[in-house]
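Please review this one:
***
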Amino acid sequence: MPELTPDELLTTTRSVRKRLDLTRPVDPALVRECLEIALQAPSGSNAQRWHWLVLTDPEKRRRIGAIYQKACRAYLDSPNAAGRLYANDPARSQVQGRVNDSVAHLADRMGEVPVLVVPCLQLPSGELPEGNQAGLWGSVLPAAWSYMLAARSRGLGTAWTTLHLAHEEEAAQVLDLPADVRQAALIPTAHYTGETFKRAPRAPLEEVLHENGW
């Protein structure tokens, strides 16, 4: 496993799409370790309404992969696709093109990834409330990120994806989800190829920092 400082872990946990090893099995014990760590994340009112589906069954992975691929094709054809953003900025446009390519690459292989993790949230009322939902989703998303950080520290690659939620009901049928459970993401998990990860290019802090008001 890589020896990472906290800062290295936080700045080099990337979305791994092209470098997921589709042929190497993932030890279920590693996934469980990562999920045990995820359960230490904050949860509103300490309700802990999160649930975690871990898909290793080849047929279910294939079916979820097909749903993701269908959603991704629509996304890549949309104005909001990564490759169409910042078209007037040559430097950022080049980065966005690479992101676009890697998204398409993963979409065609999602069903082959050894482990698919689906963090879910059980709704207290059975339905999503109107208005502010920040506290609701804030009770599962930090835990999902903790899972991804724990996976990185154990030599596993992950990617944060949500495109399949365009067909959430279809995916829920594959996953046999109860009516009061909603999906938060789809996290492919595998050993990665290659050795190094580095910081990603980001806009300067000065462009997005606001002190004491906008």
